[in-house]
């Protein structure tokens, strides 16, 4: 059979194209560090790679949520620390005011100082970070605490009127901010998020201040820190000042103000849990990246050797083509 120049050219061009395609494929591998550019090249590995990337995306989302919650808790801890400092200062002033050597004028000065602390206490309860109130539960848009007719209100409810265990009290107590950190998010039959499947990262204000009232020796005493401190200040200003009454109020104040320290401990526990979850997800991220490399990645050194070998083969083919396909008379015709 006669082999024509056209046949040689066709076969040569096809072989050269194959070499060029393989050279380009190897070049892409070396440049990107990936075995395949398209899922069609290896469907089975593409499915594995997709699953790994999906898991990595989930973990990245959880880590982002954890960082957000940690920042929120850090701000909450700062606020609670300030509240605790105010409480401690108030205790010192109350003890000083209860000294029998104090005159009425001196007690009035202490009462004024206590009222200054009340203002600081209220301002701290309404701490706003980046446009969000941190102690208002899901109410982050408006100040959760306000004074109405001299009494402390929380999200529209007078705290002295809210007794523990009532429907309104439980609603406010459980009204906390939550976030998905991979605890198995699911919904209740009524389409609400199940609280056990998300992480609660906010401290509700009512849980800090306390609510309701208590009867002490026939006296109706507030259970919330703010109004109780106000009652003590009023007693220091009263013409009928009673040391025994202030002593009883102070004993109750020491009890209810312990809420602040309890909440600081709770914030610490929540922060520690987030730290544990972050470490867990960091380990998962490391393992997923290793799996991703094993599925999608290349052996860089080996791929470079293949690429250089293919480049040599391609250049050799070009040189061979120059010898195989000799010029004919048609190359010189115009």
Written description of the protein model:
It is a single chain. The chain is mostly helical. It has a domain of 230 residues: f41 fragment of flagellin, N-terminal domain, CATH 1.20.1330. It is 62% helix and 8% strand. It contains 9 helices and 9 strands. The strands form 4 sheets. It has a 3-stranded antiparallel beta sheet with strand order 3-4-5, with no helix packed on it. α2 runs antiparallel to α3. It is rod-shaped.
Provide a short characterization of the protein structure.
The chain is built from nine helices and nine strands.
How is the largest sheet built, in terms of strand order? Answer: 3-4-5
For CATH, the homologous superfamily of the domain at 55-284 is named as f41 fragment of flagellin, N-terminal domain
Question: What percentage of the residues does DSSP assign to strands (E)?
Answer: 5-15%
Radius of gyration, in Å, reads: 37 Å
Q: Which class of secondary structure composition applies to the elements?
A: mainly alpha
Secondary-structure arrangement, i.e. CATH architecture of the domain at 55-284:
Up-down Bundle
- How many H/I helices? 9
- Unreliably modeled segments: none
Mean pLDDT: 86
């Amino acid at each position: 059979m006669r082999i024509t120049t056209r046949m040689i050219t066709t076969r040569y061009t096809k072989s050269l194209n194959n070499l060029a395609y393989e050279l380009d494929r190897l070049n892409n591998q070396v440049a990107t560090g990936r075995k395949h550019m398209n899922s069609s090249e290896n469907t089975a590995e593409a499915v594995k790679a997709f699953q790994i990337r999906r898991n990595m995306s989930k973990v990245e989302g959880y880590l982002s949520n954890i960082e957000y919650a940690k920042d929120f808790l850090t701000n909450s801890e700062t606020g609670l620390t300030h509240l605790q400092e105010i409480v401690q200062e108030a205790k010192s002033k109350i003890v000083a005011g209860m000294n029998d050597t104090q005159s009425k004028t001196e007690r009035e000065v202490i009462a004024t100082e206590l009222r200054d602390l009340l203002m600081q206490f209220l301002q701290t309860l309404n701490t706003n970070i980046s446009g969000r109130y941190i102690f208002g539960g899901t109410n982050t848009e408006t100040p959760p605490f306000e004074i109405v007719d001299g009494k402390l209100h929380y999200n529209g409810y007078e705290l002295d009127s809210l007794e523990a265990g009532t429907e309104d009290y439980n609603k406010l107590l459980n009204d906390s901010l939550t976030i998905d950190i991979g605890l198995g998010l699911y919904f209740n039959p009524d389409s609400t998020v199940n609280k056990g499947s998300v992480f609660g990262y906010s401290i509700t204000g009512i849980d800090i201040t306390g609510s309701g009232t208590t009867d002490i020796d026939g006296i109706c005493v507030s259970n919330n820190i703010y109004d109780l401190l106000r009652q003590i200040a009023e007693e220091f200003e009263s013409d009928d000042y009673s040391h025994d009454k202030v002593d009883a109020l102070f004993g109750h104040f020491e009890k209810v103000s312990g809420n602040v320290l309890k909440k600081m401990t709770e914030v610490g526990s929540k922060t520690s849990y987030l730290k544990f979850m972050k470490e867990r997800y960091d380990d998962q991220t490391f393992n997923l990246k290793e799996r991703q490399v094993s599925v999608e990645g290349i052996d860089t050194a080996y791929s470079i050797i293949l690429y250089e070998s293919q480049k040599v083969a391609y250049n050799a083919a070009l040189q061979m083509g120059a010898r195989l396909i000799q010029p004919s008379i048609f190359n010189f015709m115009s």
